[in-house]
Amino acid sequence: MKTAILGAACLIACSSSAFAANATRSAFGALSDGSKVEAVTLSNGAGMSARIMTLGATLQSLVVPDKAGHKDDVVLGYDTAQEYLSHPDYFGASVGRYANRIAKGKFAIDGKAYTLVTNDGPNSLHGGPKGFDKRMWKIDSVSNGPEAKVVLSYVSADGEEGFPGEMKVTATYSLNEQNELKLEYRATTLKPTVLNLTNHSYFNLSGNDARDVMGNMVTLNAARFTPVDATLIPTGERRAVAGTPFDFRTPHRVGDRIRDARDQQIRYGRGYDHNYIVDGAAGTLRPAAVVNDPVSGRTMEMQVSAPGIQFYTGNFLDGTFFGKGQHSYRQGDSICLEPGVFPDSPNHADFPTSRLNPGQAYVNTMVYKFSVR
Ligand code: BGC
Predict the structure, then answer these.
(1) 189 lies in which domain range?
(2) I need a surface site. Which of 90, 110, 121, 335 has the fewest CB within 10 A?
């Protein structure tokens, strides 16, 4: 109702760019233990909407018009909240405390050693078996206006999943009339700790289940990436992308070089599963990536403040998880672009720091701008 009133008022009095974006709060079912999940849907007058659920502060759906005006959901996921717990693959989730891998689940802060549960071969992945993606976040505020906004928060206890220091985290999603979805993670801690918060959306700009992403054109503003060992832990090298299948400084089809097994890094990643070092100064929002689906015309431009971005082509999706509308997700069905510090930073003194001290404010901002070409 509110949308209709605001919309009508603007039709008479305002230009279309003055349409107010709306945030609507609703129930989103319950988990098998009975806990209730809520969702907030942000929508604008340009046909975009984003649904965020409290489980994992997860981007559960993202509806974007194509070049003919058809609206489709462009992120992988499930129809019910419980499925996100039963078949976790971080679809759309807010990942923490440490997105990506920490070698052997071990690190030290000021000489004190910490051991995490290993949940990815010998390594710890995405904050451990019960990371932030599997926690219930609280809705702090919901607002309408030139942008629709929801702020979610989570308090992670001292020692949770092996990490030191009670940490307060917020995830703020906002959608404006220019089809920009902005996501900002903030955190403070009561003891020195390490963290890497990111969003793990799997994008398929064709509309979730129409086609794979091999024909998508990707640009990554990164002259270097961090090569990995066989367990996907960075070796410490910062390698130039020039002359390798990793060079996306100009647009390339995802599928063109993804099977080029002459490059050992393609073998280790089963395709792309690598951290790119985003050009320019970390800490300022700067263009990092563009993804274009030539068929639907949908284009996503990403700006990030983080030093790195993990480019992952869903290589571990094996067709055994059945997503929205009972669609089976397979390798190469989606693209993840996860902005953050580099993997295993706590064990690489010369990587951008993942340390947060009491009194400091952690901020990681990413903007996803949609248009059609
Ligand atoms: C990692 C992949 C991992 C996936 C899990 C990505 O961030 O880079 O290696 O399999 O997350 O969903």
Answers:
(1) 2-372
(2) 110
